[in-house]
Amino acid sequence: MMRNVLVIGSGISGMSCALRLAGQGLFVTLVSPFPSERSQSVMAAGGINAVLEDNDEGDTVQSHVEDTLKGGAYLAGEEEVRGLCEHGGEILKYLESIGTVFSLDNDRKLSKRAFGGQSHKRTYYCGASTGKQIVSSLVMEVRHFEAEGRIIRRLWNCFHSALIKDGVCYGALLYDETSGGLEACYADAVVMATGGQNALFGKTTGSTQCDGYTQGMLFTQGVKLKNLEFIQYHPTTMETGQKKMLISEAARGEGGRLFYVEDGRRVYFMEDKYGEKGNLMTRDLVSREIWMTKKQVMLDVSFLGEELIRRRIPEIMELCAKYGGIDITAEPIPVTPSVHFFMGGFAVGIDHETNIRNLFAVGECASIYHGANRLGGNSLLAAMHGGFTAADEICGRMGGGGHPDLDGYIKDQKEILEKKGKTESRFPVAYIRDLLAETMQKDLGIVRDEKSLDNGIADVDYYLETAEKIQYDNSVMPYFNYSLIGILTLARAVLTCAKSRRESRGAHYRADYPKTNEELAHATLISYDDGAYNTRLEV
Amino acid sequence: MKVKILRQVTPVSEPYWECFNYEGPMDITVAGLLDHINYNDDIVNDKGESTTRIGWECSCLQGVCGSCAMVINDRPALACETFLGDCKKDEVTIRPLRKFPVIHDLIIDRSSIHENLKKTSVYIGELMQGEDRDHEHQYTAAKCLKCGLCLEVCPNYKNGSTFYGAAFANDCYLVYARNKNKAEDIRRVYGERFGRGCSKSLSCMDVCPMKIPTIASISKLNRG
């Protein structure tokens, strides 16, 4: 049986995996630069989907499966999605059992709200801070296993690369910020739980800590990536000088209405075009409709009344007041679509293993359930389910077979980092990351075409060429230096996938190929072969 | 505007003050200000000397992760929700939280918060809820960011001392409320590590970004 597992990333998917492993007697090292409270998971606001016994009338797990497949434009595997949806009830029970503080109805049952693209109300929630409440309860449960010595947290540690030989993973090289050096950590299995790729786009709705480096680095080490062209623009974010602040879908789930003003009157464009449920169409569609208005779109919840707003979506009220000076009980919120979630990531099988044996991926960094567009409320479910599924697979495996001699690789990487660490380039890493974000925002927007994608690829190739030549910028942490090429490589892969899909589907809309082509109803796989970015459809 | 920052290269090096000039909009936060300084191609201090980028920690930039806790004009606060326009001075002074070891510049090591909770077994174990009367308070208490602001301002808390502060008390309350079989054990450890040492200045509540009414946790735990 396997004994030691390295989990990289300590948000919801990393913690759920670690807990399930530790609960079955394995020893887990949970690696992250910062504690779980700093993870992007705490920002997940709206809720978690499940079909429970007190379901909305007529709702079934099958409906959840169908909504998820349809929302994802039929790119996700049915078997995988069925596993996800069937697991919803057990996951909700588990979260309650470890003390997650869900919102309750007057009859003390779990409250649920409507979310976009779903045929029934099935999104259970904790106010508008569902992710934070789940993180708090998982942290406490992890603490239980920490106290028993079954989970060890390694804080101030960043992933550097995996220890891979002949298609098998034996552990990872970690950069320890406290000692300032690389350390080899051998393990029977490694689970990546490192989140999305925000840094490619600069400031998004998500955490600055999610930069996509692990995906880019492992891609160059032979790990296949999938569906990178599908990037979810959340329809409702509020622009501030600081970042794009997410206005949770909960606002529309509670009845919020989108409109713009024309000739002095409000045009409820989503309702006009799609009827009563227009405001709660899938995120890809709402974002595209907002983009097409070419006007300032507003989101109004004021008519819900202060009492309901304070009770159901207090966090949204506070956020708008604090950063936008807007009283949502009295005035509408100006909203704009912004990069929010990445449907693409590590290509994994139903057991969450990548094409490298004993290397797994869970949570947002893995591409498996959401196809071409994710439904709100499915990311928290997928984070929990993915963590549990990978853990169960690992627990059933034989392990303890030792590892091959990887000393040469480890020594080389240590020498490279040490040598580069002594250099003193004044060329700031932040400058290249800024340029990259500008390119990606411009050339990989809600609507793309071949020309913009070619421009993006040419730009990123130039940044890559530059990054390979420059020395390290000693005024930032070494991680920022060594992660740059991985981040740029991932960006190049994303653009390549977007160029290769000559159709419009889900979140990928090509102005030059505006129609969906049924022959292309398959996921995109991309691999890195001696410096070449090769894509193919997963037929 | 003059920006004065207490900097420190490594955990063992001497701290020093460095000043910067800021000429820009005042409707940005201190987080935006730090970004503004760091994202210049060349960073120069107020003497025109070239200097290094300022180390600081951030993640969500919207007040829900607690990364960017620091002392701003002598008040412990999150940088991402402290607006320059509210600073009411021509100068903004920024320093790392004083109750935790400095790693680099404004980055601090707050692992003692978790270590204290771990070594006193503050976890629910098996959910054995009594009558659920305090659902709303549980919800609020579970929003604790573990940012350390409450400990920074607390007159009783020192790093390494046996008094563990408000973040500890609120997690104790969550265990107390959700496992009645563990309630007495938790009350005992709460008494030893918080109850006996708290002088009830309640300054912790003034600075809490999540507005957690720690007094409610205290009264529930004291009452038993």
Structure description:
The complex is a heterodimer of chains A (539) and B (224). With 539 residues, chain A is α/β, with parallel strands linked by helices. Among the domains of chain A are: 234-339, Alpha-Beta Complex (Flavocytochrome C3, Chain A, domain 1); 424-537, Up-down Bundle (Methane Monooxygenase Hydroxylase, Chain G, domain 1). Helices cover 37% and strands 20% of the residues of chain A. Chain A contains 17 helices and 24 strands. Chain A is globular, with a radius of gyration of 22 Å. The two termini of chain A are 34 Å apart. The mean pLDDT of chain A is 95. In chain B, helix 5 runs antiparallel to helix 6 (183-195) and helix 5 packs across helix 8 (214-223). Chain B contains 8 helices and 7 strands, in the order ββαβββββααααααα. In chain B, the strands form 2 sheets. A 5-stranded mixed sheet of chain B has the order 2-1-5-3-4. In chain B, strands 6-7 form a two-stranded antiparallel ribbon. With 224 residues, chain B is an alpha+beta fold. Chain B is 32% helix and 13% strand. Chain B folds into 2 domains: 2-108, Ubiquitin-like (UB roll); 111-223, Alpha-helical ferredoxin (Fumarate Reductase Iron-sulfur Protein, Chain B, domain 2). Chains A and B meet through helix 5, helix 11 and helix 14 of A and helix 1, helix 2, helix 3 and helix 5 of B.
Q: How many H/I helices of chain B? A: 8
Question: How can the largest sheet of chain B be summarized?
Answer: 5 strands, mixed
| CATH H-level superfamily title of the largest domain in chain B | Alpha-helical ferredoxin
Oligomer: heterodimer
- Averaged pLDDT of chain A: 95
Beta-strand percent range of chain B:
5-15%
Number of helical stretches of at least 4 residues of chain A: 17
Residue-averaged pLDDT of chain B, rounded? 93
Straight-line N-to-C gap of chain B = 51 Å
What is the straight-line distance between the termini of chain A? 34 Å
Q: What is the second-level CATH architecture of the largest domain in chain B?
A: Orthogonal Bundle
Q: Within the CATH hierarchy, at the fold level, what is the topology of the largest domain in chain B?
A: Fumarate Reductase Iron-sulfur Protein, Chain B, domain 2
Structural class of chain A: alpha/beta
Structural class of the helix and strand makeup of chain B? alpha+beta
What Rg of chain B, in angstroms, do the CA atoms define?
20 Å
CATH architecture of the domain at 424-537 in chain A: Up-down Bundle
What is the element string of chain B, with H for helices and E for strands? EEHEEEEEHHHHHHH
Name the poorly predicted regions of chain A: none
